[in-house]
Write a structure and sequence with these properties.
Distance between the termini: 29 Å
Structural class: mainly alpha
Number of strands: 0
Largest sheet: none
Order of helices and strands: HHH
Length: 86
């Protein structure tokens, strides 16, 4: 997901990096505290990063984007059914 960082738009890369790092932090907290809510938010943030990358590839680069969109949908579905945040 973080290939060609130098040629991509910096705000989008920064947002994706923040989502992934925030997801890692929440995932670590969720594992340490045994909190399914934190793990659910981790999967939501990962899904957001993958979906943003898929939309970036679709709209800006006109390249293959389905892998990123499928990974984002998978993370969202996993969050809905395994670690719901509500």
């Amino acid at each position: 997901m973080f290939k060609d960082i130098k040629t991509r738009k910096k705000p989008i890369v920064f947002l994706q990096l923040l989502l992934v790092i925030g997801g890692l932090i929440l995932g670590g907290m969720g594992a340490y505290l045994d909190s399914p809510t934190h793990l659910g938010w981790m999967f939501w943030l990962f899904a957001g990063a993958f979906l943003i990358r898929g939309m970036e590839r679709l709209l800006l680069e006109k390249q293959s984007y389905m892998g990123y969109m499928l990974m984002g949908a998978f993370y969202l579905a996993f969050s809905f059914f395994v670690y719901p945040i509500w």
